[in-house]
Write a structure and sequence with these properties.
Bound molecules: pyridoxal-5'-phosphate
Distance between the termini: 8 Å
Strand content: 5-15%
Structural class: alpha/beta
CATH superfamily of the largest domain: Type I PLP-dependent aspartate aminotransferase-like (Major domain)
Number of domains: 2
CATH topology of the largest domain: Aspartate Aminotransferase, domain 2
Largest sheet: 7 strands, mixed
Shape: globular
Strand order of the largest sheet: 1-9-8-5-4-2-3
């Protein structure tokens, strides 16, 4: 039976993300924290930054946190601090956000791309092993969409081939798998606090976390003009610090992160359950290996050949129904026009290429309501022309 009230009253649009909810909740506390920084005037490498570095590192099961200007910078600085040198090869998934490659290339290392497991979109460890050469120095797994790459398999591969593991955890704040937290598997890890990430600042920000004191010290030098002490420059460093004001905002938000991630998990469970009957119509959610350790930065479905609609047509129809969706990512890194020099071509990473035409990210954010999720699912049924039982 269709609901007549619903048929006559157009429903409010469902946004892809809604960050205003978090702000309303913490508004007063955040403004106070910002004013404290202004009062102290310690805008660069200030007190709130040191507090946030310690708190976030500890939440990740790491020892040291080094706040930097972005997730991209965290990758570049973190890799250099781990001893990755110009010309070293770094294994990295072909389906990631381009910033992962930028970080590697800023460290003047060579990204060696690897295909993914199509059921999870995570790096295929067996394919990574086949790509190892005598020049391979590190593997850079990306905990994509909020799901960690299997720590056991990663560490085995690293041990066998003497590789450094450096995690891109920009989408996986507080994710867990096999008793590891994202950021505690490798020698070091990079996080981003881009506003729409699971933990987002009021601007750009990032952090390297590590248990290795020497790596931490090297990051502190590199982010601050290559200077271990003022006006002594032992390294060719850069200027890349997390602003104290951003750290103050993040300090207020961090205690809520666990509960926001739980919100994301319940929404994902609801999507999983309600989309189950559309599996034979080609709507297939990405597989979750982690149960409640997945932090669902994104909730991604595949629109396979069995679907009566292409991904693009489904996205378009959902848009007409007021449901905003995204594609993460529509063009794989190896086919990006600016990256031709890496020497890859269409056909090199078949799973990644197929996925880029099939994936669709549904609305997902802390505070998304049951009825919003239901409205998205209803929209998918309507778009596909399937009657909902
Ligand atoms: C967001 C993101 C980055 C880059 O972070 P910025 O803070 O935007 O520089 C890197 N890798 C992945 C997987 C990301 O999602």
């Amino acid at each position: 039976m269709t609901n007549t009230i619903r048929d006559s009253a157009p429903m409010a649009p469902v946004p892809f993300v809604d960050l205003s909810l978090q702000y309303q909740e913490l508004n007063a506390e955040i403004e106070e924290a910002i004013h404290d920084v202004i009062g102290r005037g310690d805008f660069i490498l200030g007190k709130a930054l040191r507090e946030f570095e310690a708190a976030f590192a500890s939440a990740c099961g790491a020892e040291y946190g080094i706040g930097v200007a972005s997730g991209t910078a965290a990758i570049a600085i973190g890799l250099q601090a781990c001893g990755v040198e110009p010309g070293d090869e770094v294994l990295v998934p072909a389906n990631t956000f381009i910033a992962t490659l930028i970080g590697i290339m800023q460290a003047r290392a060579v990204p060696v791309l690897v295909d993914c497991d199509p059921s999870t979109a995570l790096i295929d460890i067996a394919a990574a092993e086949r790509a190892v050469t005598p020049k391979t120095r590190a593997i850079l797994p990306v905990h994509l969409y909020g799901q960690m790459v299997a720590p056991g398999q990663l560490l085995d591969l690293a041990l066998t081939h003497n590789l450094t593991v450096f995690e891109d955890a920009a989408q996986a704040h507080l994710a867990r798998r096999e008793n590891y937290r994202a950021g505690s598997v490798g020698r070091a890890a990079a996080f981003s606090f881009y506003p729409s990430k699971n933990l987002g600042a009021f601007g750009s920000g990032g952090m390297v976390v590590t248990r290795d004191e020497a790596v931490a010290q090297q990051c502190r030098i590199l982010r601050n003009y290559g200077a271990p002490e003022k006006y002594v420059h032992t390294e060719f460093g850069t200027n890349s610090r997390l602003d104290t004001i951003q750290a103050a905002v993040l300090n207020v938000k961090l205690p809520h992160l666990e509960s926001w991630n739980r919100d994301r998990n319940s929404a994902a469970e609801q999507y999983d359950t309600q989309l189950l009957l559309l599996r034979d119509r080609g709507i297939v959610p990405m597989f979750n290996h982690c149960e409640d350790g997945h932090v669902y930065h994104l909730y991604v479905i595949r629109v396979t050949e069995e679907s009566p609609l292409s991904r693009d047509d489904l996205q378009h129809k959902l848009g007409e129904l007021g449901i905003q969706t995204g594609i993460h990512y529509p063009i794989p890194c190896h086919l990006q026009p600016g990256y031709k020099d890496l020497g890859y071509k269409a056909g090199d990473f078949p799973h990644t290429e197929t996925l880029s035409g099939q994936i669709l990210s549904l609305p997902m954010f802390p505070g998304i309501t049951n009825s919003q999720v239901n409205q998205v699912v209803e929209g998918i049924y309507t778009a596909l022309g399937v009657k909902r039982e």
